[in-house]
Each structure stands twice: as structure tokens, then as C-alpha cells.
Design a protein that fits this description.
The protein has 138 residues and is an alpha/beta fold. The protein has a single domain, classed as 3-Layer(aba) Sandwich (Collagenase (Catalytic Domain)), CATH 3.40.390. The protein is 51% helix and 20% strand. It contains five helices and four strands, in the order βαβαββααα. The chain has a four-stranded mixed β-sheet with strand order 1-2-4-3, sandwiched between helices. Strand 3 and strand 4 form a beta hairpin. Helix 1 packs parallel to helix 4 and helix 4 packs across helix 5. The longest helix has 18 residues. The two termini are 25 Å apart. The mean pLDDT is 94.
Length: 138
């Protein structure tokens, strides 16, 4: 059984931890990953900017950062900017719930080895995200 703690540093309205946990669990099961702990931190742009700069050397905010900490068993952290997710939800004309779920799925897919550095890899990863979104959004 995977332990999935969710830390809310930013309000998300009626979106609770259960939907995000369900997203992680579905991807872990679908990608056949056994995890010990996958924590999720929902933060603001300033926080993710600081994390991005400190750990990845990128001087900007982003939507999601995934940190695989251990591999056996999998121990990881997914950090999501709720402010960026809100902007993206408006841009893509989806709900905040769907955008947060997409970001948690995206982060978990990175843990499964999916990459998005090239255009073709991004396309494949987006297809896989859509597969899981369709399973989870009703």
C-alpha cells in the first residue's frame, strides 16, 4: 500500500486530497509501480519558483516538479503550483480539479520513467495523461 500525504499550502476550494491521491494510485497501478510514499505539496508560485531555482537551477515558476527520492521502495515528492494550475485551467478551459489532476498524473508519470524533453516524448506523455484523465474525471 502506498502512503500519499497531501500538504495544502494554498487553498483549492472544494478540491480535497482524495482526488489527488486517486490520481497517483491510478497511475502507479497502471504503470505497475510499487511505491512506499508519494507526497504531494500544493504551493504558490513563489514557493515553486524557489524550489525550481534551488534544486533545478531554473529561475522561474513552473506548474509541477517531481522529486524521486528513493527507488526501492519508491519514495517521491510532487510539488504543484496551484496559482499556475489556475492560470492553465483558464487557458485550457478546464476545471481547476482537472488541471490539478493532470499535473499530479504528469508528475507520477515522470516517476514511471516518462520524459517530455522532446516534442515526440511530450506528445506520447500527453496521450498517456489523457488516458488517465479519462479514467478519473466523470
Amino acid at each position: 500500500m502506498t502512503y500519499i500525504p497531501v500538504r495544502f499550502e494554498v487553498r483549492t476550494g472544494s478540491i480535497g486530497a482524495a482526488v489527488l491521491r486517486k490520481g497517483v494510485e491510478r497511475v502507479l497501478r497502471g504503470e505497475k509501480l510499487k511505491a512506499g510514499t508519494v507526497s504531494i505539496a500544493l504551493v504558490d508560485d513563489a514557493t515553486i519558483h524557489a524550489v525550481n531555482k534551488k534544486f533545478l537551477g531554473h529561475d522561474c515558476a513552473t506548474d509541477v516538479i517531481t522529486f524521486p527520492l528513493e527507488t526501492e521502495p519508491l519514495d517521491a515528492e510532487i510539488v504543484i503550483s496551484v496559482e499556475t494550475a489556475r492560470r492553465q485551467a483558464r487557458e485550457f478551459k478546464v476545471s481547476l480539479k482537472e488541471e490539478l489532476l493532470r499535473l499530479v498524473i504528469h508528475g507520477t508519470l515522470h516517476l514511471a520513467g516518462w520524459r517530455d524533453a522532446s516534442g515526440r516524448d511530450r506528445e506520447k506523455m500527453r496521450d498517456r495523461e489523457n488516458y488517465y484523465i479519462q479514467k478519473l474525471i466523470k
